[in-house]
Please model this.
Amino acid sequence: MARDGIDNSAFKQIFQDHWNEFKDVYPRFDTPQYNEAVRKMLDCGDPERRGFVQYRYRHCGQIRRIAFTCKSCFCLSCARVYTEQWSDFIARRLFPGVTYRDVVLDVPDFLHPYFYRDPTLLGTFRQAENACLKDIVHTSTGILLDIGTIIVLQTAGRSGHYNPHLHILLTAGGLDPKGQYKSVGFIPYEIMHKKWQYHLLTMLKQNVSGPAVRKHIDRAWKNYPKGFVAYLQPGDVPPGGK
Model:
């Protein structure tokens, strides 16, 4: 599509012009992992760099050359196919007939720098989410349920700014201690907000040291008396995660 083509061209040009300069300012990105992703994206669709397949039309003799793509999720041209394949992969692993809910857990802006400076916190971030959701369901139902979650970590918001947050597919229920599935039809927003605040701040307190983080944790409790942002998809949800 024309619009996609324009966006992709501009996206590539930004990296062609500024990637090396960016790494000079932010050396943490000068690693083989990042460099390879950028290189594949820049070479995508270039027959000289990526190779190509060539066809000859039998009726007219005209030759058509099609360059190979990078098939990377970092490339705007290939990301759509990558996303569709990933979505299909996830859909085939959901339990038929089980209702799933979409949950989003966010982080206040003033806490973002801790995750940016230490990316290893992102793994602990996901672990805090799992404990948090189990706690939310337990508090809401009074039953200790073994829930199911599929967690997607995103480190950027819609505008592209750094914003670590979690998108989760959560089973609307779980297995009780006897192995019986129990549905959970309602989870109060107030519980979600407060529980997420508690688990996130506890995780930071346990994994980050120094007076600055203690000051920010105190600020978080004081300035967010109703808890942190936690979105739960409202209304009826079709079975199977559709």
Observations:
- Residues 2-25 form the longest helix (24 residues).
